[in-house]
Amino acid sequence: MDKIKGVNLGNWLVLEKWMSPELFEGTDAEDEYYLPRALPKEN
After folding, report:
1. Taking the model in full, what pTM does it have?
2. In a 10 Å sphere around its CB, with 0-12 CB exposed, 13-18 middle and 19+ buried, how is residue 22 labelled?
3. Local structure of residue 23 (DSSP, 8 states)
């Protein structure tokens, strides 16, 4: 049986909360679309 090889590009093209939870701390954002709206303007 042949082995399937692949590469995980998670968090490279699309920010994923489960891979970088520290970026989402203190917000109620669930994904990268809502994160900028939940952060203070200073950030």
Report:
1. 0.62
2. exposed
3. G
